[in-house]
Q: What sequence folds into this?
């Protein structure tokens, strides 16, 4: 309680009032009532004081907000009575303030709850109906009104079965009837009728609303439209089916993938084992598929794979269960395969289907063949992975033999594969332990016998196995990727030896080093060459790189950029094995080539084989027209040399003059030719 003047100045306040506002009684004396009032309530408070001053009222009661000393907002119910000592003018008022802060908070929470409830009821995607024991509708929410395209008030007082079901009596399935009878919750799924007469699947749930005495005279009926849920369930099932399909099929060809292959193969093995029947696994891939993709592009490769799959599916039996376990990795499961006859027939059928007619892909006519490997249950294994590995080993043997055929698995094939793996490990160790040597074969002017170049050739001297043939380890290095490290090692050693010869005055010529297709496509060839030249301090003018024709054609644009960079560096470029690849005259004209090396396959049969002689003669003519030097490789007989001299050949290489020499022997040859008393060390 507090007293105040008509000017709203506090005279005296009791302890409860002071505690309510957080002040001391002394602090409140003389303080303005307006200063204690919340800014939003000051005008209303001032109007009450003005009414008293003008004699319009003597008492007033209202709710308002106060600001406590600490800034906290509190609510108070204020009842004020004015006292008049003189007849016309009020002297002071007595105000009693009741703290209603907690009540206001409870009211606010209640309003929030009511608003939330109302929003929930009106916006939930469920129909809500309040219905009495005579099945009259007392209230519906906006969802029901929306379903029937009517205002909520329209339904009040109507019979629910007449309004919603167009019936004359209570529905037989009505769960509300049972609620009124036993006071429990009941639900049912049935059909509802929309405003347009269409029917839709609904779930009805009826819940009792007991009176204070516990009697159930009303119930709430909740209506759930299941149409959308059912549609969503159908879509979900369709999506699951689609995901399941994608998880088990190759997206390009639509064939079952590796996952489904393993599953089918496991079930086939179980059946074969249970029924004591044989079965076979057939693995095959398209020959030269990687070359097609590299040369013509991955889009052509993909379309080739797709067309091959379509042709195979169309012409093989459905029971053959064709799968694609990986890129260009086809598989078939042959059940009830009691002997080799069925698997042989299937392998032959695959080869016939692929080779029957060429494939036309984006303007390219492609002739396809396949490498087919076959394993049998139970002879070659009892587990899925064992049979697949056996078929892979057999397929690898077909590849080694040039493809376009089939092989049955034999245990000795596994031994050969293990030998190759062992050899690969030994080669890796050879690179680490520097077991690789570089030999040099002279390139000669046949008229004078002058050495005009040296080709660096790698040799592997194993500490226990002795010299290992390049024909044995070079393809293995290519396949395993070790060729990049091997090529870098040979290049560095060749540059180092060339620098030694140059410093000794024995190198007025080039040293040629072979570059593999993998180095050109995947290795950092330019950086490797720059690094080797820098480390050995060799001038680029004394280095020539030999690149095969087929390597250039794997990616002509990429190859062109590298060759141009090499020319800019000052390194010479020779096109090795010319005549065996796929290059066209357009590419040959654009490539910065310094020298064509005629493939040994053509030189070997001249002049006896007229076709080979004609090809060699054409290459020399082509070189003259394009201004490119031509060197004949693999010259071994006097007849070959005389034929080449007749064509104006000025550069040859081969055993007729010298076999590949180790660095020491090659140095001796050079000293004979370029020493103080030059003599020709070569046969002329």
A:
């Amino acid at each position: 309680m507090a007293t105040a003047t008509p000017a709203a100045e506090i005279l005296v306040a009791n302890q409860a009032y002071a505690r309510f506002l957080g002040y001391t009684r002394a602090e409140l004396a003389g303080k303005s009532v307006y200063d204690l009032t919340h800014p939003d309530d000051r005008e209303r408070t001032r109007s009450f004081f003005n009414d008293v001053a003008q004699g319009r009222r003597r008492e007033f009661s209202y709710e308002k907000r106060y600001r406590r000393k600490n800034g906290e907002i509190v609510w108070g119910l204020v009842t004020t009575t004015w006292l008049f000592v003189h007849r016309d003018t009020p002297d002071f008022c007595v105000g009693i303030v009741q703290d209603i802060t907690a009540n206001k908070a409870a009211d606010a929470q209640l309003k929030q709850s009511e608003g939330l409830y109302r929003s929930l009821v009106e916006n939930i995607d469920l129909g809500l109906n309040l219905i009495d024991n005579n099945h009259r509708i007392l209230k519906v929410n906006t969802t029901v009104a929306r379903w029937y395209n009517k205002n909520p008030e329209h339904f009040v007082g109507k019979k629910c079965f007449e309004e919603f079901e167009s019936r004359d009596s209570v529905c037989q399935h009505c769960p509300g009837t049972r609620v009124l009878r036993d006071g429990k919750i009941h639900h049912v799924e049935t059909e509802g009728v929309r405003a347009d007469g269409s029917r839709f699947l609904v779930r009805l749930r009826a819940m009792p609303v007991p009176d204070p005495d516990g009697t159930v005279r009303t119930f709430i009926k909740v209506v759930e439209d299941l149409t959308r849920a059912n549609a969503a369930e159908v879509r979900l099932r369709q999506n699951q089916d689609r995901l399941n399909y994608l998880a088990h099929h190759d997206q390009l060809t639509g064939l079952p993938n590796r996952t489904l292959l393993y599953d089918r193969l496991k079930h086939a093995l179980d059946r074969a084992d249970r029924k004591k029947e044989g079965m076979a696994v057939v693995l095959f891939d398209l020959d030269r598929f990687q070359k097609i993709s590299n040369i013509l592009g991955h889009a052509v490769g993909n379309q080739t794979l797709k067309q091959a799959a379509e042709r195979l599916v169309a012409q093989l039996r459905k029971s053959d269960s064709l799968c694609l376990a990986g890129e260009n990795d086809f598989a078939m499961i042959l059940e009830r395969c009691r002997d080799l006859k069925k698997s042989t027939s299937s392998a032959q059928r695959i080869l016939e289907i692929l080779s029957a007619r060429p494939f036309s892909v984006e303007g390219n006519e492609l002739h396809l063949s396949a490498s087919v490997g076959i394993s049998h249950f139970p002879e070659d294994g009892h587990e899925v992975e064992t049979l697949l590995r056996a078929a892979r080993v057999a397929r690898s043997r077909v590849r080694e033999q040039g493809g376009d055929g089939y092989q049955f698995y034999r245990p000795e094939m596994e031994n050969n594969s293990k030998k190759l793996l062992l050899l690969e490990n030994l080669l890796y160790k050879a690179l680490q332990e520097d077991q690789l040597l570089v030999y040099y074969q002279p390139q000669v002017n046949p008229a004078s016998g002058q050495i005009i170049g040296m080709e660096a050739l790698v040799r592997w001297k194993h500490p226990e196995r002795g010299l290992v043939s390049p024909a044995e380890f070079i393809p293995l290095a290519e396949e395993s990727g070790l060729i990049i490290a091997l090529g870098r090692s040979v290049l560095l050693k060749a540059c180092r030896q060339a620098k030694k010869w140059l410093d000794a005055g024995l190198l007025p010529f080039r040293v040629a080093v072979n570059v593999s297709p993998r180095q050109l496509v995947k290795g950092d060839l330019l950086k490797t060459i720059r690094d080797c030249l820098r480390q050995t301090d060799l001038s680029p003018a004394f280095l020539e790189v030999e690149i095969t024709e087929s390597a250039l054609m794997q990616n002509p644009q990429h190859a062109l950029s590298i060759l141009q960079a090499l020319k800019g560096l000052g390194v010479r470029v020779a096109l090795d094995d010319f005549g065996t690849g796929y290059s066209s005259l357009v590419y040959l004209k654009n490539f910065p080539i310094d020298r064509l090396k005629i493939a040994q396959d053509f030189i070997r049969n001249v002049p006896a084989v007229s076709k080979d002689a004609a090809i060699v003669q054409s290459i020399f003519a082509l070189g003259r027209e394009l201004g490119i030097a031509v060197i004949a490789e693999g010259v071994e007989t006097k007849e070959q040399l005389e034929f080449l001299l007749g064509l104006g050949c000025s550069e040859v290489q081969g055993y007729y003059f010298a076999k590949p020499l180790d660095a020491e022997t090659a140095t001796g040859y050079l000293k004979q030719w370029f020493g103080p008393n030059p003599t020709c060390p070569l046969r002329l």
About this structure: The chain has a mean pLDDT of 85. The chain has 26 helices and 26 strands. The first helix runs from residue 15 to 21.
